[in-house]
Amino acid sequence: MQEEIEKKTINLAITTTRMSVRMLINGLKTYISYRNHKKMHDPFKHGKQTVRQLIKQGQGATSMEISNESLKTFESIAKRYGVDYAVTKDKSVEPPKYTVFFKARDADALQLIVDEYGDRLLNGRAKTSVLEKLEKLKEYVAAHYKPARNREKEMVR
């Protein structure tokens, strides 16, 4: 009696393990077929990419130069507008210059990016730091507001 129960328990463990492995394999096959299907329908990369990938899309490319300090600002703006672009570094010049290539069909978005980029560069230099503002406020408060004296006496028993 005890041996039969042990055999049935072992059989149950083996069959559930086989089912788990089959389910895992089927799930992986489904996922791989999904990824392959998605790649076939959208073969091009979007966002930041290499110049070769950008030109391979066959839509022409335009370019503009950017300095190193403002490259991160430019990339954040380009990401917001969903533009495909590629960045190359010209090491022959000191300091190095960066050239950004765009798809030619993104000309309208490129104009918006350049406008916003210029605004950020101009407004970024005009902004004062938070510490400077804090110092000015401290001076203003010290000059205009004096602590009020509390002249009330407490009753002592």
Labels describing this entry:
2 domains, single chain, 13% strand, 4-stranded mixed β-sheet, flat, alpha+beta, Ribosomal Protein S8, Chain: A, domain 1, 157 residues
Q: Can you describe this structure?
A:
The chain is an alpha+beta fold and 157 residues long. It has 2 domains: 1-43; 48-142, Ribosomal Protein S8, Chain: A, domain 1 (2-Layer Sandwich), CATH 3.30.1370. The chain is built from 5 helices and 4 strands. A 4-stranded mixed sheet has the order 1-3-4-2. It starts with a helix and ends in a 13-residue tail after the last helix. The relative contact order is 0.09.
State the gist of this model.
Helices cover 59% and strands 13% of the residues. The protein contains five helices and four strands.
Please state roughly what percent of the residues sit in beta strands, choosing from under 5%, 5-15%, 15-25%, 25-35%, 35-45% or over 45%: 5-15%
CATH structural fold name of the largest domain: Ribosomal Protein S8, Chain: A, domain 1
Question: Given the helix and strand composition, which structural class is it?
Answer: alpha+beta
User: What number of structural domains do the residues give?
Assistant: 2
Number of strands: 4
Rg is 33 Å
Q: State the assembly state of the protein chains.
A: single chain
Let me know the largest β-sheet: 4 strands, mixed
